[in-house]
């Protein structure tokens, strides 16, 4: 019944998402591409079958993706 904060890289977050263990998720996306690596998603729309989504832009150029379980 208590909240748990999840931290880690893409692999950890994807494992918890795929297992259905994430109720809410906040992802801050910076408008900078830094080389190659793993991606959390190709598009945040991939999660729309399981989550509602609000996308909130900020004046700094950062975009906040707020997901919560349907």
Compact overview of the structure:
This protein has one helix spanning 10-18; strands at 24-29, 51-57, 63-69.
Q: Estimate the global geometry from the Cα principal axes.
A: globular
The level of helicity is: 10-25%
* Distance between the amino and carboxyl termini: 19 Å
Structural category: alpha+beta
SSE order, as H and E? HEEE
Overall mean pLDDT: 90
Poorly predicted regions: none
**SS element count, helices:** 1
Task: Tell me what the structure shows.
The chain has 70 residues and is α+β, with helices and mostly antiparallel strands. The model has no long low-confidence stretch (mean pLDDT 90). The protein has a three-stranded antiparallel beta sheet with strand order 1-3-2, with no helix packed on it. Helix content is 13%, strand content 29%. It is built from one helix and three strands; from the N terminus they run H-E-E-E. The chain has one helix at 10-18; strands at 24-29, 51-57, 63-69. It is globular, with a radius of gyration of 13 Å. The chain has one domain.
């Amino acid at each position: 019944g208590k909240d748990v904060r999840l931290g880690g890289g893409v692999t950890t977050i994807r494992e918890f998402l795929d297992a259905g263990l994430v109720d809410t998720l906040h992802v801050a996306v910076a408008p900078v591409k830094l080389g190659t690596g793993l991606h959390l998603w190709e598009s945040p729309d991939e999660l729309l079958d399981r989550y509602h989504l609000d996308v909130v832009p900020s004046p700094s150029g950062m975009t906040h993706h707020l997901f919560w379980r349907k």
